[in-house]
Predict the structure.
Amino acid sequence: MTGGLRSPQGCGSGPVRIVLMKRNLTALFACAVALPALAQDASADWDLLEDQRQKLLVAYTRFDNGISIATRCADGGFEAIITGLPPAGRATTRPLRIAFGDDDLVESRWGVATNDTIAISELPAPFARELRTGGRLRILVPAGHTDGRNLLYDIDLPASSVSIDQTLTTCDRPLVDPRDAELEALQEDGIPRNLAWAVRPQPDFPSTRYARGFAVATCVSNPDGSLRDCAIESEHPRDGRFGRAALTAARRARLQNLAEPGAPVPTTRVLYKTHFIMSGYQTREDEERQRESRRLQREERAARRAAGG
């Protein structure tokens, strides 16, 4: 079967659906950043490309209308990427609704690369672990069609018993991780319902050649509300020092117990996302995000004053 566009029968104004089958490649697709020429391992399940000099390993598969999915380890940093999507324009993040098998579609936020047809997973290792089993994968892009309708990619995903595993293990990511279920249970702001930020992580813009970037970090809470065992789940661009800045900010952050004010904070996993933008490069999305951040900080300061903190 070849890929194509069709409107599902009886759907009328429903999503445009694209059904895709795998197509082999002889060269690596354009990724989030420029890559050097790589040696290809043709025996792998997913195509596997390696450049030892650049400390780079990429597992990828591509479909017949240009959609590609890749996991890669680049000098210790792990990424999962979808390419060939409709352009995101000036947005710095984009929503994608994703389902494996016959599960319901679940919305998630993805970073937008310099090439705005490329989406970068904010939680790449959990996504890669789900990709390993293959099977049906659906990706819905809200308003992704040229006429404004939702665009649904329905993909027959090949299983990977070797290639994806190699990218995970090369970057010291486990093949099975019970923490994935913890992350799925978090609220949109990355913390459990019974907790709130007393002092929100506020990273400083790092010394970098980039005007914008993002980082996603996970940590474990201490009883006093401080954070420990912080790790970068994703950052872009990889060499922008944004992950390092996010980890530094975690040292100053504090959580508070909403369920029992004044009581110790339960030990749990939390997640926070930071979008970095240099003054003068803000998009409307950035300005809205900054206004919301300032509003939340005002509310947190008022709550601390009310509690005598």
